[in-house]
Amino acid sequence: MVDPRKDKSYDKTEWMTPLNVFRKIEKFMSEYFYVMDFKFTLDPCTTHNNLKVPKYFTKKEDGLKQSWKDEIVFVNPPYGPGIDDWIMKSYEESKYNNAIVVMLLSNFTDTKIFHQIILKYAEVVFIEGRISFVGSKGSPREGSILAIFDNQSHRKYLRLTVRGLS
After folding, report:
1. Which CATH class is domain 23-160?
2. Is the pTM of this model over 0.90?
3. Do residues 133 and 16 lie in contact, with contact meaning Cβ atoms separated by under 8 Å?
């Protein structure tokens, strides 16, 4: 395994979620919402070679400019400049448009947006271990979280063990 601190491939901003990780997130969400077959309906920031849900937006359609009203949304946003826009959009769509939004994010818990938006308005699930994203030579330098925006208060703090996902 490549040392993630030396893997320069992680300097890019867009990473595809492995299908097995995506399916385990859906399974976790089934348990979280107490439904048998939880399925995402929209991915607003994907590529044509990474389609996992029936409805999607690519860079061309710009998911930040589209409505997510009444959708069940999976967001693995581009990491880097602009990520705060995806977090704010997720929060706003859940609050004003009845969307359920599950974001896969780096666990940068020291950022301003984490404290002002994620910690305040989302359920936070800490993922144990690191996810090996599609196209990487190893694992990222940091772990990941799920931020669940659903405008409901199901639980306050959660822990998800996902060892062996990658």
Report:
1. alpha beta
2. no
3. yes
